[in-house]
Amino acid sequence: MKYIASVSFGKDSLAMLLLLIEKKEPLDEVIFYDTGMEFQSIYETRDRVLELLKSKNIKYTELKPKQPFEYTMFNKTVKHRNGTRSKGYSWCGGRCRWGTTEKNKTISTYLKNNYGESYRELVGIAYDEPNRIKQDVHKLYPLYDLHFTEKDCLSYCYKRGFCWEEDGIRLYDILDRVSCWCCANKNLKELRNYCKYLPTYWNKLKKFQRRTSRPFKNNKYTVFDLEERFKQELKGSENK
Ligand code: SF4
Predict the structure, then answer these.
(1) 185 lines ligand 1 (CB under 6 A)
(2) What are the sequence ranges of the domains in the chain?
(3) Are strands 165-166 and 139-140 parallel, antiparallel or unpaired?
(4) Are strands 119-123 and 2-7 parallel, antiparallel or unpaired?
(5) Among 64, 72, 90, 92, which residue has the most ligand 1 atoms within 8 Å of its CB, making it the best to mutate?
(6) Is-above-0.70 flag for pTM?
(7) Top-tier CATH class for 2-173
């Protein structure tokens, strides 16, 4: 039996990986699915961990989408049920999580092709997210078994010097999740912080919005609408 950890290099899967290594649990391979749209600090975290894996002689594999994320988002020919065609799936998130679908498929195909039935995939789902746990004989959830909550994972990573810092900001201080920077699942609080503290990524979001007519948030608000809303909120609070 082979044990393979799926990591995104966010707080939960990183805590899981560090714990597995610290506790000397069986670990044959680490896989990372790189959407190509990760935050810079995720790639920096990966690079640090790669050195650790090398020193422990643990195999590391990077998987990627078949075609670049941006191509699928804006250029791929998409056939709709009513027979019409359009260019690209547009934003990924909400009910249209095409990026997640491809990620899950790519990982499970890789595991089946390389290990048949003789593997266990270690998945970093925290103790306080039980609804994300799937009954699947091939999956193990070490964080859940160890009663490690999301908060525990973050403080465990911070204690080990992993802080996901960009522009002087620890991303987990302003975001609930450090997933793809263009993820349409971000909530309003996260987006407000995004606009305020991460102008480089916010500008990239605006560039993307110019390339698609579909509004970014809830199919209702474009990135420009959100920016205007945040400006008005700021004005309102200054006038108080
Ligand atoms: S994090 Fe968001 S944008 Fe990235 S694949 Fe998942 S749903 Fe899509």
Answers:
(1) yes
(2) 2-173, 186-240
(3) unpaired
(4) parallel
(5) 92
(6) yes
(7) alpha beta
